[in-house]
Amino acid sequence: QARLDESGGGLVHAGGSLRLSCAASGRSFERFFGNYVMAWFRQYPGGGREFVAGILPNGGRTDYSDAVQGRFTISRDNAKMTAQLLMNNLKPEDTAIYYCAAGPTLRNSQGDYTSWGQGTQVTVSS
């Protein structure tokens, strides 16, 4: 009924950039994608999922963690049912699995989101 698929991860040197994409599919998103908050989380080995960025259904408000503020930009295209995360000036500490998520409200806890992608690996070398 609802599926999110991330792409765009890879290996990059410190200071470089990557753009992650999240494509939504399934009946629920076909009907209501424009009503969902979209967000990105990241997970380090052995750790929980940390909030990275979120965006309101109409794109009018965005929120970022302190760790990525000023370096990452979240955006969405409701007509294409996609969300993106542009990551600039990447640092080794950004290395993690990045997950796309959808939910009813813009919050920073993973429990507030109802749909998740399978994740894409981002590795930043020093």
Question: Quick recap of the structure?
Answer:
By secondary structure, this protein is mainly β. It has 1 helix and 11 strands.
Explain this structure.
The chain has one helix and eleven strands; from the N terminus they run E-E-E-H-E-E-E-E-E-E-E-E. The protein has one helix at residues 27-32, and strands at 3-7, 10-13, 18-25, 37-43, 49-55, 62-64, 72-77, 82-87, 96-103, 115-116, 120-125. It has 126 residues and is mainly beta.
**Mean pLDDT figure:** 96
- For the terminal residues, how far apart are their CA atoms? 41 Å
- Uncertain residue ranges: none
Number of DSSP strand runs: 11
Radius of gyration: 14 Å
Taken as a percent bin, the fraction of beta residues is over 45%
Task: Looking at this protein, list some descriptive labels.
126 residues; mainly beta; 5% helix; globular; 7-stranded mixed beta sheet
Helices and strands in order:
Layout: E1 3-7, E2 10-13, E3 18-25, H1 27-32, E4 37-43, E5 49-55, E6 62-64, E7 72-77, E8 82-87, E9 96-103, E10 115-116, E11 120-125
